[in-house]
Amino acid sequence: MSLTVSPEIVEKAKSGQVDDRSFIECIKESLPAAWAIFSRLAAAGVEAGGPRVHAPQSMPDAERGQVLRAMASNAIRGAVERHFGFVLAFQNCHKVAAFAPADVDSPAYRAFTSIEAQLLNQTPEMRDC
User: Fold this and answer.
1) Are 70 and 54 contacting, i.e. CB atoms less than 8 angstroms apart?
2) Are the CB atoms for 121 and 53 separated by under 8 Å?
3) How much is the pLDDT for 127?
4) Which of 22, 97, 103, 106 lies 20 to 30 A from 5 at CA?
5) How many whole angstroms separate alpha carbon 2 and alpha carbon 65?
6) Please, which residues have CB within 8 angstroms of residue 115's CB and are 6 or more apart in sequence?
């Protein structure tokens, strides 16, 4: 399960009444390790001209799982991007970058999301990520 959802938010969802603020709170509470990573990327200051990258050599399985769940959900990822004002790019559970929206068609973005970058980012330690 990606999120821990309260009965109150379920009722709001049934009637189409969930706003981004409520959804963000649900994400923060359900995926605290992933939220901490996104917050650090935002705090580093995402500016035009280059991304902020989270790429540790290793991560606990629980943290990797949270990042994967956040990045794999269009709704979660979109809410995080709107909240922080950046665009996320994803190679695998331990390598995530935040780009300024203006940089989505930049050489840096194309390089990070390229086939070559994906292949070069593979390591035996992160194979099961």
Assistant:
1) no
2) no
3) 58
4) 97
5) 9
6) none
Query: pTM here?
Result: 0.89
Q: Is residue 128 part of a domain?
A: no
Confirm whether 32 is domain-assigned. Answer: yes
47 vs 74: CA distance, rounded Å: 23
Please report whether residue 25 resides in a domain. Answer: yes
60 within 8 A of 96, measured Cβ to Cβ? no
82: left (phi over 0), alpha (psi -120 to 50) or beta: alpha
pLDDT (tens digit, 0 to 9) for every residue of the chain, 129 residues total?
689 999 999 999 999 999 999 999 999 999 999 999 999 999 988 776 678 988 887 888 889 899 999 999 999 999 999 999 999 999 877 789 999 999 999 999 999 999 998 888 776 665 555
d(CA 27, CA 5): 9
With respect to residue 2, please indicate whether it lies within any of the assigned structural domains.
no
Q: How far apart are alpha carbons 94 and 48 in whole angstroms?
A: 23
Q: Which domain, by its residues, includes 23?
A: 7-123
